[in-house]
């Protein structure tokens, strides 16, 4: 297969590119990425010399860029998005533009060139928030997004379904819980905590720190997407989760423990507005139908991730200081 991977220079997209090039020696990958603050060509450096890989800088909302790329591929795997909830609270417009309009432009291109498989990477946040005793989210949970980010992702999910029902586009959707692992951008809880601790700084914990997230190692998410892309039922949605429900404060304490640091590093700060209390995922459908389940336990995954950040200090220091931008500004003359 020839895959068009949108957002392939981001956290999960870059892990997916490496996964496909490693696991599918016949496949070719074209990455389309705008290189926003979250996109980093360093994430794709390992792939640079691979003749089965190509990078195109461009905007998914620009049909002139998107159309010829969709025409030449067999399948679109759509990661590109504005992905950070806190940023969506400050600047919702960018989220609507990329996540909603960008998805519609891609879908139109797939519709124009019949027969293209379209896999849409989405999030558990579209389902809203759970109470402590509520059943986990599943494929039949009604949508109830509560931040500009999750509302824009819900909009994109609805568009993908609409293109299946209205135009017969061969689509699939996956809704996944919180990922962590290599190349995770250090504005998110786990990489921010690890890198702050490595720098001798405090970790900001929002509110009482008792919000619950379900954590999945990014490589397990990539395996799930790959499986749905190749074996998933057309028009189907799959919920993907990690069996890794933890309170934020427990995640921070585990990281302190791994790094041998004291609880003095915890700094309780003002809560996120509209902060969702709990997410959890029932992933029985993908387990029963496609045989997928998480392979990395949260404790092991966190240890591996701390080791990765220790071994890739230059990567995260460049990201935190903004230096990584110079690398692609040079390449693209900006
Ligand atoms: P990320 O922010 O790390 O990466 C997003 C990538 O998209 C970046 O490389 C960025 O440059 C690119 N991009 C942004 N706007 C673009 C545009 N207009 N045109 C082309 N490229 C553009 O995000 P991530 O954490 O890797 O998430 C990837 C996808 O997975 C998103 O759709 C997100 O909603 C979804 N998701 C993320 C998680 C998670 O825990 N991070 C969990 C479930 C689902
Ligand atoms: O659930 C899947 C979603 O997970 C994805 O769709 C999003 O793209 C991804 O960013 C992530 O969203 P969250 O808001 O859950 O992730 P974040 O790492 O920003 O926050 C995790 C939890 O930690 C959340 O309850 C807020 C809290 N938090 C976050 C930061 C950045 C803190 O307490 N302190 C922090 O500094």
Describe this structure in words.
The structure is a single chain. With 334 residues, the chain is an alpha/beta fold. It has one domain: NAD(P)-binding Rossmann-like Domain (Rossmann fold). It has helices at residues 11-23, 63-72, 85-90, 92-112, 148-167, 189-198, 218-231, 248-258, 284-290, 298-311, 313-321, 324-332; strands spanning 2-6, 28-33, 53-57, 75-78, 117-123, 171-176, 178-180, 203-206, 212-217, 237-240, 245-247, 266-269. A 7-stranded parallel sheet has the order 3-2-1-4-5-6-10, with helices on both faces. Strands 7-9-11 form a 3-stranded mixed sheet. It is globular. 47% of the residues are buried. The model has no long low-confidence stretch (mean pLDDT 96). The site of 2'deoxy-thymidine-5'-diphospho-alpha-D-glucose has 19 residues, from helix 6 and strand 8. Nicotinamide-adenine-dinucleotide (NAD) is lined by residues 6-7, 9-13, 33-36, 38-39, 59-61, 79-83, 98, 102, 121, 123, 153, 176, 178-179, 185.
